[in-house]
């Protein structure tokens, strides 16, 4: 499994959400795979962009990138920016898991 980050203009977020939520029961749906959608300002990146984090196998990314053509400003983030965003999101997930561990002991 690998992690990738894609970005689009915030004006296109409605189109992106529609794409992400379509056909949730399909084998290669975004809903089954899981994803995180973040505003750039929230994660310390470009405020005019929204960022999509996905962790999946290479076959999923092939079909996903074909679907992303429906969102005009959608593209894969530059490598360095993508790595930074992946690190922040994975840190958030780790913190959340630790919080649940503290609650449930």
Keyword list:
Alpha-Beta Plaits; 4 helices; 105 residues
Give the total of beta strands: 4
Rounded Rg:
14 Å
Distance between the termini: 30 Å
Q: Proportion of β residues?
A: 15-25%
Number of domains: 1
In which order are the strands of the major sheet placed? Answer: 2-3-1-4
How is the quaternary structure best described? Answer: single chain
CATH topology: Alpha-Beta Plaits
Low-confidence residue ranges: none
Topology as H/E string?
A: EHHEEHEH
* Overall mean pLDDT: 90
CATH architecture: 2-Layer Sandwich
Structural class: alpha+beta
CATH class: Alpha Beta
Largest sheet: 4 strands, antiparallel
Number of helical segments?
4
Global morphology: globular
Percent in helix = 40-55%
Structural write-up:
- Helix content is 47%, strand content 22%.
- It is built from four helices and four strands, in the order βααββαβα.
What's this model, at a glance?
This protein is α+β, with helices and mostly antiparallel strands and 105 residues long. The protein has four helices and four strands.
Topology summary:
Layout: E1 2-9, H1 13-21, H2 30-33, E2 35-39, E3 49-56, H3 58-67, E4 75-76, H4 79-104
Antiparallel strand pairs: 1-3, 1-4, 2-3
């Amino acid at each position: 499994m690998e992690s990738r980050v894609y970005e689009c203009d915030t004006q296109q977020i409605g189109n992106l959400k529609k794409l992400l939520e379509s056909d949730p029961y399909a084998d290669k749906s975004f809903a089954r795979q899981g994803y995180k959608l973040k505003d750039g300002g929230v994660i310390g990146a470009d405020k005019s962009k929204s960022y999509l984090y996905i962790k999946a196998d290479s076959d999923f990314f092939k079909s996903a990138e074909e679907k992303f053509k429906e969102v005009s400003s959608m593209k894969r983030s530059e490598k360095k920016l993508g790595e930074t965003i992946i690190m922040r999101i994975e840190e958030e997930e780790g913190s959340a898991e630790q919080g649940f561990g503290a609650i449930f002991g």
